[in-house]
Specification:
The chain is an alpha+beta fold and 451 residues long. The protein has helices spanning 17-28, 69-78, 81-90, 110-123, 231-237, 257-270, 284-293, 299-307, and strands at residues 9-13, 32-37, 57-58, 95-97, 102-105, 127-130, 134-140, 143-148, 153-156, 158-161, 177-183, 187-189, 201-210, 213-224, 228-230, 246-250, 309-316, 324-329, 347-349, 394-398, 406-411, 415-420, 424-428, 431-439, 446-450. It is built from eight helices and 25 strands. The N and C termini lie far apart (57 Å).
């Protein structure tokens, strides 16, 4: 009887969505798989995707949404949205599609996605080595030696780098790296212009102006924050913005200036008190901010401010909350059919480790940027193509109790809001959440939580 060959050892560096999917596919092909994750548990960022609902994919996903359509096309052709849903269905996840083509778990919670991925890994005997940061990969014989930050060493026959944007593991292996930078992130602006507006949302038209010339214009919703602006519109603007730009907000884009001036004159005739001019038009705090900018208080001046509410852009906001990164390993050095390195056989890279997202084309089109995970067919060597884009979460709800009450309120099955009369806090199954906004002190008050 011939000697039975031992399963190939596959090391997956990164326990995010792409890494977990790659581990499952390699395990299904018979490989002995280990995931190395620097955080204390796998899938932390996955829990934040799609406003906590995990937007798995989109029926309209296309190579044209990426900066190298020719490179991405084989991956998407091999694993279209329907195949992705079948993959997750095989793990026991039920999915639904909304009217804009976004695919979500039927449970409407990202935790279900992480749970089925972890159960899938567990069933295949995939080892999880959390709190283990891999600092270097070195080819050795027909495999690789992985060195952890602690000095501990591991051996693998194949390595899949799924460590996300910012990874430095590929450059020492000879790969050309395009510098990483965050995109789809909030914008930091001068704070005087937004004083008192934190937490307010406003539908508007936004225009970036650079040295007197228009750079980019888009309509949507802006969310004012204590440091600047966020929301889908701000995230899309971040693809084009430079420090020093002026962000001009048209707060009533549906009305031309002359029509707005006439309507404000009619509004003024209704109000005895000038401070009430914007009641019925804007949120009180936004109306106050507009009024503060006026020098004369004349209707014509107020109309001009509404049509051109300017903020000075200082740069990106908290880049830790950027939904994607641009940059990464040059895709020309990887096989688009397998995502195997052309320079180092047996080495693979997936997701944001590769330069597949670009500030020129990446756009936030939903409540948050969709997280897309592609998993191609695995062979006996554990060669698995997959692509993952992840995001963060801001969740808005209304309180069923007054903030002054002492209560604990469950929102769905993953978020809990606590009120004690002095403060409002929140926790999730994945840890502590940050309460960004409490708009009111009564039952039904709006609260915004960031995970």
């Amino acid at each position: 009887m011939g000697r039975k060959e031992a399963p190939r050892r596959v090391a997956v560096i990164g326990g995010g969505a792409g890494g977990l999917c790659a581990a499952i596919a390699a395990g299904q092909a018979g490989a002995d798989v280990a995931i190395f994750e620097q955080a204390n548990r796998v899938g932390k960022k996955l829990l934040k995707t799609g406003n906590g609902r995990c937007n798995l994919s989109n029926t309209h996903v296309s190579p044209e949404h990426y900066n190298r359509p020719d490179f991405v096309a084989p991956v998407l052709a091999d694993t279209p949205c329907s195949a992705l849903r079948s993959f997750f269905g095989s793990l026991g996840l039920w999915t639904v599609t909304d009217e804009e083509g976004r695919v979500y778990p039927r449970s409407d919670t990202a935790a279900s996605v992480l749970d089925v991925l972890r159960l899938g890994c567990e069933a295949l005997g995939v080892a999880e080595r959390c709190s283990t940061e891999i600092a270097a990969i070195a080819p050795q014989g027909r495999g690789f030696t992985l060195t952890a930050r602690t000095g501990e060493k591991f051996f693998a026959d194949r390595v899949i780098v799924a460590a996300g944007g910012g990874t430095s593991l590929l450059r020492p292996l000879g790969h050309k790296m395009i510098p990483f930078s965050p995109v789809l992130c909030p914008l930091k602006t001068d704070t005087e212009s937004i004083r008192g507006l934190t937490g307010l949302r406003c539908a508007c038209r936004a225009e970036l102006i650079r040295r007197g010339k228009s750079v980019y214009t888009e309509e949507g919703e802006i969310l004012f924050r204590d440091f600047g602006v966020s929301g889908i519109l701000a995230l899309n603007l971040s693809r084009h913005v430079l420090p020093g730009d002026t962000l001009s907000l048209d707060l009533l884009p549906e009305l031309p200036l002359d029509a707005l001036t006439k309507k404000l004159a009619v509004q003024k005739a209704l109000r005895q008190n000038g401070a009430d001019l914007f009641t019925g038009i804007f949120h009180r705090r936004l109306g106050e901010a507009i009024a503060r900018r006026a020098k004369s208080g004349e209707i014509s001046e107020l109309a001009r401010i509404i049509k051109n509410y300017c903020l000075s852009v200082l740069g990106p906001g908290d880049t830790q909350h950027a939904q994607v990164t641009r940059g990464g390993a040059d895709t020309a050095e990887f096989d688009p059919e397998t995502l195997e390195s052309r320079r180092v056989p047996g080495l693979y890279a997936v997701g944001e480790a590769l330069k597949v997202a670009s500030g020129a084309v990446t756009k936030c089109t939903g409540a948050t940027k969709p997280a897309y995970v592609c998993v191609g067919p695995a062979n006996a060597a554990g060669e698995v193509p997959c692509v993952a884009v992840q995001d963060y979460m801001e969740f808005e709800t209304t309180l069923g109790v007054a903030p002054a009450e002492n209560a604990t309120v469950a929102v769905g099955n993953k978020l809990t809001i606590h009120t004690d009369g002095a403060s409002v806090t929140a926790t999730t199954t994945s840890g502590v959440a940050e309460v960004l906004v409490i708009d009111g002190q009564t039952v039904g008050s709006r609260v915004v939580v960031r995970f």
